[in-house]
From TrEMBL:
GO terms for biological process: tRNA processing. It is an enzyme of class 6 (ligase). InterPro entries: Rossmann-like_a/b/a_fold, TilS/TtcA_N, tRNA_Ile_lys_synt, tRNA_Ile_lys_synt_N. It comes from the Eukaryota. It comes from Sipha flava (yellow sugarcane aphid). Signal peptide: none annotated. This is tRNA(Ile)-lysidine synthetase. Residues 2-133 form the tRNA(Ile)-lysidine/2-thiocytidine synthase N-terminal domain. Its EC number is 6.3.4.19. One of its GO terms (molecular function) is ATP binding. CDD domains: TilS_N (cd01992). It catalyses: cytidine(34) in tRNA(Ile2) + L-lysine + ATP = lysidine(34) in tRNA(Ile2) + AMP + diphosphate + H(+). Keywords: ATP-binding, Ligase, Nucleotide-binding, tRNA processing.
Length: 148
């Protein structure tokens, strides 16, 4: 479903696409998938190419809280970097300062289509538990928590 959606968008916009399948075990799925994605990106990116991701302000907030939960040191508490060197390339996160809500509003105005991963609503995952149970309470108390 996701690869078909991405292929259709790329075909419509005359953008080349590479689709890779990965195998992961059922333990720590999110972390495994992330690591495998970045391994693939490192292999296929040409030296002059830049990788852009859709990480946003909400991701930043979730990551910071997860780092605190894990007892991270200063490096972990610095959050998601806007720019990061990955081997011979750069990873840029141009949306990191924008909330998910603001990005969705923009996408709706532009009549863009997207797919939401149903697992994002499974609060068995720590990130989703924070997203759906903890962060709304923090935001209710301190409206500008994410921005700070």
């Amino acid at each position: 479903m996701w690869s078909k959606h991405c292929k259709e968008i790329c075909d419509t916009n005359n953008v080349p696409i590479i689709i890779k399948k990965i195998k992961i075990t059922k333990k720590n799925i999110e972390n495994q998938a992330r690591k495998k994605r970045y391994q693939i990106f490192k292999k296929i990116l040409l030296p002059s190419e830049v990788l852009l991701t859709g990480h946003n302000l909400d991701d930043q907030c979730e990551t910071l809280l997860l780092s605190i939960k894990r007892g991270s040191g200063l490096k972990g508490l610095s959050g998601i970097a806007h720019k990061k060197k990955i081997v011979k390339n750069y990873l840029l996160r141009p949306l990191i300062k924008y909330s998910k809500k603001k990005i969705k509003k923009w996408a709706i105005r532009k009549k863009l289509k997207w797919i939401e991963d149903p697992s994002n609503y499974n609060i068995e995952y720590d990130r989703n538990f924070l997203r759906h149970k903890i962060i709304p309470k923090i935001h209710h108390r301190w409206k500008y928590f994410k921005k700070n």
